Amino acid sequence: MERVIVIRFGEIFLKGKNRDYFESLLIKNIKHAVKDVPHTFSRSQGRYFLENFSEDDEGELLDRLKKVFGIHSLSVADKVPTLATDDFAEIRKSLAVIARSKAEDADGKIRFRVTVKRADKSIPMTSAEIAAALGGTVLQTGAFKVDLKDYECEFKVDIRENGFSFVYTDVLQGAGGLPVGCSGRGMLLLSGGIDSPVAAYLMAKRGMKLFAVHFSSPPYTSDKAKEKVVELKNIVERYAGEIKLFVVPFTDIQLAIHKNCPSNYMITIMRRFMMRIACALAEKYECGALITGESLGQVASQTVESMTCTGATATLPVFRPLIGFDKDEIMDVAKKIGTFDTSILPYEDCCTIFLPKSPAIKPSLKSVEKAESALDVDALIAPALEGVEIY
Ligand code: ATP
Ligand code: MG
């Protein structure tokens, strides 16, 4: 039997004059997500359909579609000839097969209804009449009883204009959110840790197109650490679409801070440099905001005072989508999106080298600026920006 994937998108963002724009982005993102799996794409009546794919590819297509933001829900349907002249014989066959498989693991009768959508107006019956007639097929299995209001199972039949109908029951949850690209661009500060990939996921979910910057400090950090970050980027890309990754050589800046500034301000000053460099790249690539994986109070560098000191160097808004998340909650999302196992690989991060014994937990901006005044900021940033590698 031929199969079809039915794609529904959220209603809320489609109101008003932005509808065409949102839809064209969503279609582009869907096509990109499944571009190497043979299929045909069509749209009709506020839904999209994937057809003509091989049976073996069905699972892979669903997996990919479940990661496309802006998709509200998905169903896999049987595509059968409508055959109104033959009392909908093919539709009934499909209904019977689905009903029998539902009945297998049910105890007691399943409350059900049949809902018919009829685009083919040449059939001389109303949708409700067709639904009532088709309900008989489901009842024949002996495992169901009709309940139009409080049903456990809804059999849906879309009678289309071209002589075909789609028959299905289950509705799979989509990724929700908004199509990537509809909320501007963001520059993610991507470490190798658990948090920043989750922050990336959440901002992409709200429609941001992502760019990413990673600070690397060879030889203190290894190629393995860099590969890990590239792998994290690849995983997030399944949701967020293509992400350009900038790897910034950070060793000289860290050494200069280490040599010239009080050690308890090491982390704060280092973060200030990260912000400045991220802003410079963000402006070059027309990003409207920075994104970090910070969570309030998680570590010394994530107190209100520390974030005030680091944020002061940013010339763009800094989005911290995890600010109110507990570590457990962040880990749950990381596991769900598939970044967790990569994030916990034990490669050193640039933040773990030259770690002070007692970092300032509540630094004041004045004292940090004073501590930093020993450095020529511009002279340190320029070579770092020149040494950027793009992935
Ligand atoms: P993560 O799990 O994201 O590494 P964390 O809990 O380890 O976060 P920090 O190390 O304090 O926290 O980093 C806070 C944020 O600063 C990170 O979420 C990330 O956005 C940014 N950051 C830290 N280190 C780097 C780095 N080497 N390159 C790019 N961004 C970084
Ligand atoms: Mg980290």
Characterise the protein shown here:
The chain is of the alpha/beta class. It has 2 domains: 2-173, VC0802-like (2-Layer Sandwich); 185-390, 3-Layer(aba) Sandwich (Rossmann fold). Helix content is 39%, strand content 21%. It contains 13 helices and 15 strands. It has helices at 19-33, 58-65, 89-104, 127-139, 195-205, 223-240, 251-260, 266-284, 304-311, 327-337, 340-343, 365-372, 377-386, and strands at 2-9, 40-44, 47-51, 71-81, 110-118, 144-146, 153-159, 164-168, 172-173, 185-189, 209-216, 244-249, 289-291, 318-319, 389-390. Strands 1, 2, 3, 4, 5, 6, 7, 8 and 9 form a 9-stranded mixed sheet that branches. The chain has a 6-stranded mixed sheet with strand order 14-13-10-11-12-15, sandwiched between helices. The mean pLDDT is 94. Magnesium ion (MG) is lined by residues 191, 193, 349, 351.
